[in-house]
Amino acid sequence: TRKLKPAYVFESDFLDDPSRPGTVVYPWVMVNNQRELLNKDSSLEEYFARINVDNIVRFYKVEPP
Q1: pLDDT in tens, 12-33
Q2: Stated pTM of the model
Q3: Looking at the 3D structure of the chain, how many domains does it have?
Q4: Is residue 4 part of a domain?
């Protein structure tokens, strides 16, 4: 994860093609993957905060939670 600077956003969606299940990462799997990585390395907390909060706030021009 740290090979990339936290200057991107994750977006997960359902593919509109039922013949290709699992082609994208489901939102709940994405959360589980991040939680697993964070449990292994708590120093990733700031990295994930930038991706999941700061970048979303900046990209969509919304208020943080």
Answers
A1: 666 677 787 777 777 788 889 9
A2: 0.73
A3: 1
A4: yes
